[in-house]
């Protein structure tokens, strides 16, 4: 899992905010190199959980209210004006708006999307397992950081550990109070608004917007006409294209050529033995994560992929595994805290084999394909991939 170039959260260096919007933020998903050992319910209980007690009363965080799905993220280098926020709240089709503090920050030595939130209201915009955990939100309210399931399981950041959080120059030690995916394609870590201000993050510079009956692309097109200067808007979790059988083109520049397939596979093989590094996409990071490996291999064939597994899964047509061909990307949804999100990706080699970067503590390797939580195979379209990687 890594950081797609189309993302928009600003970057904090110490307590200052760069006016240039960064484009690297993470999709909250989990990787796995085999079927989970625990039943699904136990998996969720394990990862949507508080690490120890906080001393806060149960009433310190409001109970779960009406859950809303966030469809659009707006982010700016500085505070969004109350007038703009109110205008969006009253816009046609808007069912909810949640104002947050949002930056690119450093958490446990990794550069990730970081949000400062009001635990009592923000929880309503998260996946059901995450939203329901009172203990999780009390921990966040008490000053803990909640990190994505992927950052914990794949990145090797332990629940209950103390980790540095902040900018490159100024960081504070915070306890990892929970593993829990927030269901937002740009965020790997969440802290309270109070903690965010103590770290020097901007106040209220971003918002999540729920527009359940309007296509996000349509809403964003209208929204851009009224966005403040330097603010940007993107869809939170674009849908994956699951076409009907037979709808995948065979040639005409829509899918890879045989030569491109051979080049991709050959390039992936050259990475065998390199360490798994969460967020790794080149030799500079000392290794690769699953989507970083895909990006590297396909680039050698002149195909630009977006950065994370959930975005890469939209770089073509999803077909059943039974119809997978060498050069396809296999995709899984393994995250117990956000069921359905694409969380792992690998390169199919044929004959039941795949080349993958599994998780922290492993290396890039050839594995037997497993089908637990698999969502199919992606027949990559160079054109579709290029449009996503812009």
Provide the descriptors you would attach to this structure in a database record.
single chain, alpha+beta, endopeptidase fold (from Nostoc punctiforme), six-stranded mixed beta barrel, 12 helices, 19 strands, globular, disordered N terminus
List the helices and strands and how they pair.
Elements lengths: L11 E2 L2 E2 L22 H8 L24 E4 L6 H8 L6 E12 L2 E8 L1 H4 L5 H4 L2 H8 L3 E3 L1 H5 L8 E5 L4 E9 L9 E4 H6 L7 E5 L5 H8 L8 E4 L22 H12 L11 E2 L4 E2 L1 H10 L9 H4 L3 E4 L9 E4 L11 E7 L2 E4 L8 E4 L5 E7 L1 H8 L1
Write up what this structure looks like.
The protein is α+β, with helices and mostly antiparallel strands and 390 residues long. It is built from 12 helices and 19 strands. The chain folds into 2 domains: 12-235, no CATH class; 258-389, endopeptidase fold (from Nostoc punctiforme). The chain has helices at residues 40-47, 82-89, 119-122, 128-131, 134-141, 149-153, 193-198, 216-223, 258-269, 290-299, 309-312, 382-389; strands spanning 12-13, 16-17, 72-75, 96-107, 110-117, 145-147, 162-166, 171-179, 189-192, 206-210, 232-235, 281-282, 287-288, 316-319, 329-332, 344-350, 353-356, 365-368, 374-380. The strands form 4 sheets. It has a 6-stranded mixed barrel with strand order 4-5-9-6-8-7. A 6-stranded antiparallel β-sheet has the order 14-19-15-16-17-18.
């Amino acid at each position: 899992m890594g950081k797609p170039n189309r993302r928009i959260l600003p970057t904090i260096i110490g307590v200052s905010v760069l006016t240039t919007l960064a484009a690297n933020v993470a999709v909250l998903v989990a990787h796995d190199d085999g079927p989970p050992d625990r039943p699904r319910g136990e998996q969720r209980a394990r990862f949507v959980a508080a690490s120890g007690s906080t001393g806060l009363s149960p009433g310190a965080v409001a109970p779960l209210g009406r859950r809303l799905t966030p469809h659009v993220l707006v982010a700016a280098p500085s505070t969004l004006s109350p007038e703009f926020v109110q205008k969006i709240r009253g816009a046609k089709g808007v069912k909810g708006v949640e104002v947050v503090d949002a930056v690119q920050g450093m958490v446990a030595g990794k550069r990730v999307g970081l949000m400062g939130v009001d635990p009592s209201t923000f929880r309503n915009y998260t996946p059901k397992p995450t939203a329901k955990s009172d203990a999780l939100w009390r921990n966040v309210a008490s000053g803990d950081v909640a990190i994505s399931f992927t950052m914990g399981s794949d990145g090797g950041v332990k629940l209950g550990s103390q980790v540095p959080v902040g900018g490159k120059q100024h960081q504070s030690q915070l306890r990892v109070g929970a593993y829990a995916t927030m269901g937002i394609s740009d965020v790997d870590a969440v802290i309270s608004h109070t903690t965010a201000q103590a770290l020097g993050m901007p106040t209220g510079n971003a918002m999540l917007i729920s527009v359940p009956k309007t296509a996000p692309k349509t809403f964003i097109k209208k929204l851009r006409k009224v966005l403040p200067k330097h603010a940007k808007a993107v869809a939170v979790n674009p849908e994956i294209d699951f076409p009907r059988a037979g709808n995948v083109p065979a040639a005409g520049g829509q899918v890879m050529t045989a030569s491109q397939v051979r080049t991709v596979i050959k390039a992936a093989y050259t990475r065998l033995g390199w360490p798994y590094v969460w967020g790794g996409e080149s030799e500079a990071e000392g290794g690769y994560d699953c989507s970083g490996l895909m990006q590297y291999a396909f680039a050698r064939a002149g195909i630009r992929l977006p950065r994370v597994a959930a975005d890469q899964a939209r770089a073509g047509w999803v077909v059943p595994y039974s119809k997978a061909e060498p050069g396809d990307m296999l995709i899984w949804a393994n995250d117990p805290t956000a069921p359905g999100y694409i969380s792992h990706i690998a390169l199919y080699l044929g004959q039941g084999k795949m080349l993958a970067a599994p998780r922290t503590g492993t290396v890039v390797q050839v594995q037997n394909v497993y089908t637990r939580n698999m969502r199919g195979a992606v027949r990559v379209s160079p054109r579709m991939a290029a449009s996503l990687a812009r």
